[in-house]
Amino acid sequence: MPRKNSTETKIYVLDTNILLHEPHAFLSFKEHDVVIPMTVLEELDYIKDSKKDVARDARVSIRAMEDLLHDATPEDMLAGVSMEGLGAGQTAPTGSLSIFADLNMVEAQQVFTSNENDNRIINVALHLQKTFAPQKVVLVTKDLNMRLKAKGAGLAHVEDYRTDQLITDIKYLSRGFHTFEGNFWDSVKSVDSRSEGRDTIHTIPKSMLPEAYVNEFLLDETKQFAGLVEEITDDHLEVLDLGYERLMGRHAWGITPKNIGQAMALHALLDPHIDMVILTGPAGSGKTLLALAAALEMVVERNMYDKIIVTRSTPEIAESIGFLPGTEEEKMLPWLAAITDSLEVLHKHDENTKGSMNYIMEKANIQYKSVNFMRGRSIQNAIVILDESQNLTASQLKTIITRCGEGTKLIVGGNLAQIDSNYLSAVTSGLTYLVEKFKDFSGSATINLDGVVRSRLASFAEENL
What we know:
Blueprint: E1 11-14, H1 16-21, E2 33-37, H2 38-48, H3 55-69, H4 74-79, E3 81-82, E4 96-100, H5 117-132, E5 137-140, H6 144-152, E6 157-159, E7 177-180, E8 192-196, E9 199-205, E10 217-220, E11 226-232, E12 236-241, H7 244-248, H8 260-270, E13 276-280, H9 287-301, E14 307-312, H10 315-319, H11 328-332, H12 337-346, H13 353-363, E15 366-368, E16 382-387, H14 394-401, E17 409-414, H15 430-438, E18 444-448, H16 456-464
Parallel strand pairs: 1-2, 1-5, 2-4, 5-6, 7-10, 13-17, 13-18, 14-15, 14-16, 16-17
Antiparallel strand pairs: 3-4, 8-9, 9-12, 10-11, 11-12
Helix pairs in contact: 2-3, 8-9, 9-12, 14-15
């Protein structure tokens, strides 16, 4: 059991979904004690042998706990085994990890008497709260309904797992651009401009934008200036002058931008020096259409890449693509209808739209792949379009990104307002994590598309429903 009645430390009771979200989560609580109910180990045991994508995370978590507890006696495991020496730096754990045998709890100690797993885990937290008062006992779970049940049953402290949250609110998420009030040049105190070929580079004081990061776009309210941060030193910013009108004049596969957000996205998508482009924004802002148009332009017209691989995640795909007849691509087609819809839009004025689509799919070597089969691959010289990424965790996104080999460009799109996962929110989504982690990486760019251009009906619905 944890250290008795220590008011300086807390006792954290972990739910199963925490260890599936982050297999080594029990190492993230510094000096505090961690309790794993036996019910959680039972759930992990059931999941580890399943065909679901999270089975790997369950096995990783079990192995990590076994590494710590393998020399412990049954009495030690119940009393708590120190986690000291397992981590590094200021976040290294110094508390203990213990297993609570909740299966042996007498009925008098149980608030919930029904034998559901969630109820048994809440019973453990309530029992510890009573036993170790006034020490704080905290139940950590991503299950919102479980948090409500625990509070309703009398548990004082219930939390989500926040160790991997880089921002507290979605409004602080990097947008990929900064808009200056008024005219850009009015706010510039000193500037050193030079020409490199056809490009003009401005060196401006970093004090103008202390929080700037590489590949961040700079705009002004007068729509006269558009630039891109190319390099950051201790005192200065190197800004590539893009020109507002020139930026709006970008085009790919017959598509021209309808607003400045799309223009910035198109610039980043067509830039061969940027290996990953992250597109966020509401439904109908043009994320998928722009990604596909740019991909076709670079594969078919410019011969910069060999093929286009399209993948996305849905709860069903993450678990299995099923046993329906057909190839992997035929099974994936219903889930990737957004891509075929966009392809249809790009060729709607052709004399034979269906014939054009089939020709282009063959010419551009467009392949539809399941997220399930991305692990273990090495994708070379291709464009990978990952759609609906808001439903993926950080570890799932890492699995996909690390598949990208030399000469591959990754386009990640998602709408943080449309998360279908039971255990993810806008601030804990892997897409949010990706935006914040990669904003200082010179090989990536993020663009938040904030205008709905699909139709006036879609625009009204996005604003008013």
